[in-house]
Amino acid sequence: MDSLVPTHAPVNSEDTFAVLKTFIEEIIGEDFKDEIDIRRDSSFTADLELDSIEIVAFSEKVKLHFGSKLDFTGWLSNMDLDELIALKLSDVIEYIEACR
Amino acid sequence: MPVITINGRAVHYQQLNEQATDTVLLVHGMFSNLAVYYFHIAPILAQHFRVVMYDMKGHGMSDRAESGYHLEAMAADMQALMQVLRLPAVHLAGYSFGALVALKAALEYPQRIRRLGLIEGPDPADKRMLEGIAQYNRDMLLDYVEKNDSQVLTTGGRRRLEKMHRRFEYLFHETTIRNDMEKEHAFFEDAAIRALPHDTLLMYGRSSDCVGAGELLHNRISRSNLVLIEGDHTVPVQQPAVIGERLTTFFNN
After folding, report:
1. InterPro entries, from UniProt (chain A) (predicted)?
2. What is the pLDDT of residues B71-103, one digit of tens each?
């Protein structure tokens, strides 16, 4: 089921992680879901193997779910390519927590 | 994901700063998607403009299509997207094959295009890409990914490689893309290019194989300016801030 529905924001980082993990499972799809271990320290490119258009999809899900106060695209746009490649789920969780 | 229907197919698009008065429309390259703009170039432009970018058919998250990859059809798709999004006129920029689509759109729909930014538009008479398509196999993909590891967000991984391979196999073997591109070999000879009325910014990577195409277009488009930027054909990935700022200045003039 697609979780792209605005809901109340999670109350702690574990909840945030659970939501982000669901997003990634939706993006990766059923074929590969069991092959990819989604952890807090997973990097988007090397570990989760997301390509650039999948990171766009992830970004859109984050924006819609966590609300317009969170300038997720703006945050990403301040990163250079190396930083984007090295980006981890924990970085996103920290960013979301800091925006509350 | 925001999706609109064009000619019966779902087209994935993204937009930033919808409230702005003037719009910049961005067209990505062949075998790529809107992500080439999404992370850096689009946010820079969005400080001044409404920015719209979309995945061409068969690319990114848009629906697949077996045919219609020639420039006239691609430009018509773009024009249809402008209709649906109610964009009477836009500043237009395209990268690589997207630059050819943008140029074709400016020729076909001159009243709907204000200023034109062409980034790394290749000469369709150059047979190298078509030869690459004809010879494509999985080993070529692995070789490409290895060489471009740090440049195109493709750090390997079975799932990602498999996804790319499936996409290329589909486009190269199950669509008319190769024949459609082959038919465009004389596009730069089109007399209408010499009569193009638009102010045009041509941007190429200084060490790109496509610089000759930029010089050729500069000679043919009377109201054009050619700018060389440090980098090669992947200059929008290598120098997104420079590209974004150059386009912003040009479109703001």
Report:
1. ACP-like_sf (IPR036736)
2. 999 999 999 999 999 999 999 999 999 999 999
